[in-house]
């Protein structure tokens, strides 16, 4: 990228992650959530079609985790960027698979929960256990799974010591 275009591109990317007013700060002056958002902006340099998120909301307070999740939703719905998300946090999975970005007539972007008639067919869940796929499908299929391990995972309860489940 030509040097004269770098500042413009940085501004666009920082605006996307709502940090356009923080350009004068050093990394150690940013909060954990701000650092994650800068990481997202950096990952978007060059307009990738796929971004890998590894535990993007780990160790964040709920409002900041929601902000990161909303950025992932906005990327998916407004920028047509596919995301591969690795997480152990079911709240993040539930939110990303049941919300969508909408643009108002005034051009304002909001993230809204899906209604009864809205289906996010472009979002899939893949669950691994001990290196093997134990689930692949939609959010709705995931929640309706009868697999005891998946139900324990969804509910956030621990498995009993020594208890195993079938990988199917």
Tell me what the structure shows.
This protein has 168 residues and is α+β, with helices and mostly antiparallel strands. The protein has two domains: 3-123, P-loop containing nucleotide triphosphate hydrolases (Rossmann fold), CATH 3.40.50.300; 124-168, no CATH class. It contains six helices and six strands; from the N terminus they run ααβαβαββββαα. The strands form three sheets. It has a two-stranded parallel sheet. Strands 3-4 form a two-stranded antiparallel sheet. Helix 1 (3-16) packs across helix 2 (32-43).
Write a brief caption for the model:
The chain has 168 residues and is of the alpha+beta class. It is 39% helix and 18% strand.
Explain the layout of strands and helices.
Blueprint lengths: L2 H14 L15 H12 L6 E5 L7 H17 L3 E5 L3 H9 E5 L5 E5 L11 E5 L2 E6 L1 H6 L3 H8 L13
Parallel strand pairs: 1-2
Antiparallel strand pairs: 3-4, 5-6
């Amino acid at each position: 990228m030509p040097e004269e275009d770098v500042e413009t591109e940085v501004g666009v990317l920082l605006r996307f992650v709502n940090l356009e007013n923080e350009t004068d700060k050093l990394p150690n002056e940013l909060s954990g959530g701000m650092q994650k958002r800068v990481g997202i902006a950096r990952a978007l340099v060059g307009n990738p079609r796929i971004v890998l998120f590894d535990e993007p909301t780990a160790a964040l307070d709920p409002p900041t985790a929601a902000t990161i999740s909303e950025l992932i939703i906005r990327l998916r719905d407004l920028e047509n960027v596919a995301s591969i998300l690795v997480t152990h946090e079911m709240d993040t999975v539930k939110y990303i698979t049941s919300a969508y970005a909408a643009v108002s007539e005034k051009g304002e972007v909001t993230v809204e929960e899906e209604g009864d008639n809205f289906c996010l067919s472009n979002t899939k869940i893949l669950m691994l256990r001990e290196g093997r796929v134990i689930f692949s499908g939609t959010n709705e299929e995931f929640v309706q799974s009868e697999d005891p391990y998946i139900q324990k995972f969804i509910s956030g309860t621990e498995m009993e010591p020594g208890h195993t489940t079938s990988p199917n």
